[in-house]
Design brief:
10 strands, alpha/beta, single chain, 321 residues
Length: 321
């Protein structure tokens, strides 16, 4: 496993991290706690030292905390998230930060996360939504600074609104944030235009989520794909979206001259080819997925020719809406 710096805060993170939304037994159907625990332990065995969870991910914080405590003595860095007090995802323009992340709410959410997980601190505390309207307003920054001083968190980040990387540029340039979490993949390459260069310039770490487009870049979704009842992907891939995704995936495979089974690997390597990226956090609910993803941390970025091919496969859309 190879490691990269998560900004300037002194945290060295595995370039393959662990996205723990899918193990919370909430929005994703199919993962059992036993399977999740085995997968997370195997990830740590293979050098994964960064786990991303959230207050809103069902049982995820509890499961992650259980595994981290079972691995006492080993450094496993855990990031969690504070949901907006008003429950609005994504954050629309014009909101007062007192309605979304007042200091009291931040503290209460963190204390709940610490209690549920059984941990004594989090390495990264993130706001689960963000708006640049809040830079220089409210008491959130004062609260975050106090939590750092208390030792309950080591660094502060935000999860950038889906497909809106421009909404965190002012924050990155302000020096008030240590890391940002953002959607970046073959389809959504927008962060490479302004956000990633700004993060490099200002020493801000980058956590990449949705590198595989919720499964769309695995080569396993096409017109005939269905999901279990209650699985949130029934909404994400509703209507003719699976067929659209299947066609786009097939085009990438053809242009790269690879097999469909190799698509996920190339999608992950696309993200890791950016030196601005600190870590990528695919959801991994099985030992097999962990082993396949961890094996990609081998220092082999895509070639310039391959990246040029993939630059032609941008697909701007928002399936979350």
């Amino acid at each position: 496993m190879r490691y990269r710096e998560l900004g300037l805060g002194g945290l060295s993170v595995s370039e393959i991290g662990y996205g723990a939304w899918g193990i919370g037994e909430s929005s994703w159907v199919g993962a059992t706690e036993d399977d999740s625990v085995r997968a997370l332990h195997r990830a740590i065995d293979l050098g994964v030292n960064f786990v991303d969870t959230a207050r809103g991910y069902g049982e995820s914080e509890r499961i992650v905390g259980r595994v981290v405590r079972e691995r006492a003595g080993e450094e496993v860095l855990v990031a969690t998230k504070v949901p907006p007090k008003n429950g609005m995802w994504p954050a629309p323009e014009g909101l007062d930060p007192a309605a979304t992340f007042p200091g009291e709410h931040i503290r209460e959410s963190l204390e709940t996360s610490l209690r549920v997980s059984g941990l004594d601190h989090f390495d990264v505390l993130q706001f689960h939504v963000w708006s640049d309207d809040w830079v220089g307003r409210g008491d959130w920054l004062e609260t975050v600074s106090a939590l750092k001083q208390s030792g309950k968190i080591r660094s502060f980040g935000v999860s950038v609104n889906d497909h809106q990387p421009e909404t965190a540029l002012a924050l990155v340039r302000s020096g008030a944030v240590d890391s940002v979490q953002v959607i970046y993949n073959i389809f959504d390459q927008a962060p490479a235009e302004e956000l990633l260069p700004a993060c490099t310039e200002h020493g801000v770490g980058v956590i990449v989520r949705v590198a595989l487009d919720e499964g769309g870049l695995t080569g396993r979704i096409d017109a005939g794909t269905t999901f279990p009842e209650g699985d949130w992907r029934n909404r994400y891939f509703r209507g003719d979206r699976p067929a659209q995704v299947g066609q786009r995936a097939a085009a990438i495979v053809a242009d790269l001259g690879i097999t469909l089974d190799e698509l996920a690997e190339h999608a992950m390597r696309f993200v890791l080819s950016s030196t601005a990226v600190s870590t990528v956090i695919p959801g991994m609910r099985t030992v097999r997925n962990v082993e396949r993803n961890a094996a990609l941390s081998d220092g082999r970025p895509l070639t310039a020719d391959q990246l040029a091919v993939l630059a032609e496969h941008r697909w701007q859309r928002n399936f979350y809406s």
